[in-house]
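Q: Here's a chain of 397 amino acids. Please give me its 3D structure as C-alpha cells.
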Amino acid sequence: MITKAQARRFILLHHGLLGEHRFIGKDGAYAYVRQAGCIQFDPVDVCGKNAELTLQSRVKGMTKEMLHDLLYQDRLLADYTDKQLAIITTEDWPYFARFRAKAVECGRQFAGLAELEAQAKAYIAEHGPVAAEELPIEGKIEWHSAIHWSGNWNGLSNAARSVLEQLYSAGELVIHHKKGSRKVYDLASRHLPQALLDAPDPLEDDRAHICWRVLRRIGAIGLLWNRPSDAWLGIGRLDTQARNEAFAQLLAQGEIFPVEVEGIRGPMYCRERDRQTLALAVSDTALKPRCEAIAPLDPMMWDRKLIRALFGYEYSWEIYTPAEKRKYGYYVLPLLYGEGFAGRVEAARDEKAGVLRVKHIWLEDGVRRTKKLDAAICSCMKRLAKFNACKEVLYDE
C-alpha cells in the first residue's frame, strides 16, 4: 500500500510536472504525446489552446511552432478523434482502422454522399488543400458524423463541410493545417506514407481494441481506477462489463498491476512499464518543486473525481457556465506548485498590447502566501507570457 502523498508524487513524476524536466524541446513534446496516447484539442485560445497548454506545462522550451511542425510538417502527430477531438501520433494510425470502417459504414446510409465524396476528392487532387467554404459544393445534405452515429439521423447539414468531415473520418483526408478553428483538408496520401495508410489493424477484434484503449488511458493518467470515468470518453462499446473484462485481461497479461492507496476504496492500477517511476515516488529522493499552469482538459485532469480524491482539489471548467453562475471565471487554469495544487489562475493574452493579463489568482484554503510561492507563480506567468509572445505580465489586482 502507498500513501496518498506517494500517489500524488507518482502522478506528477509520471507527467513530468515534478523535479527536473523530463520532456525537452520538440522531441520532448512528441515523447509526451506518445506517453499519453493523445492530448485533447479545443479551439478556444485565451492564453494558448488546450493542446498547446498541455505541452507548455511539461516541455522545457516549448513553443507553439513546435506543435504546429509536429502536426503539419514532420507529420509525426495527427489531428484525429480519440478522447473526443484529439491529437494522436501517426504511428497509431493503424489502430483506428475500426473507427474509419465505422465512418465508411455510416456514410453509406446517406443518399448521394458517395458522389459528393468523389467530387470533393477530384477537386482537392487538382486544386490542393481546401477549407469547407472554398469547396464548390453548395446546399445542405442529410448527414451525421460517425463520431456520434447511432443509426438514426433526421437533419440537414452544410454539404461541403459534411463531405469533408466524412472523408476525414474515413481517413481519406487529413487536416493540412488550421487557422483558429478553421480546418483545411488535403488528401491523406500526400502526407502520410502509403505503407502506413495500407497497414492492417494490429488488433484482432473489438475486445483487443478496447484493451489497447484502456491501457492507453491508464498510461495517460498514470494511476487509474476501474470505475465509470470521463477518462474513458471516446472509447466505443466500453460498458461496465467490457471495462471489467479489459482490466482482467490486462492484469492476466501483466500489462498492469494493482496499487492500494490509503483512504481509497478498491485498487488503482498502474502500467507495468511505469513501475520504476512508482519506485522513485515512494522513495525519499528530494525532488525540485515547480509551479505550472495546467490546461483545463489536461490528461492529468481527465478524471476530476480522482484528482479530488488524491489531491483534495476541486476543479470545474466554467467556460460553458453562464457568467452569473461562475465561481471563478471563463478560462481558469489549475495552478500546480510542488506536490499539490496551490490554487488557480485566470490569465488572458492581450495581443494588441502585447501583454499577458493576469486577471485573478485564487489560492486554495490552507495555502499560505509566501515570498517563495509568489516568486514561483511570477516565474510561471512569465513563462506563460513568453509562450504567448507577450513582452510582459500585467496583474489586474
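Q: Can you summarize the key feature?
A: The CA atoms of residues 56 and 101 lie 35 Å apart.
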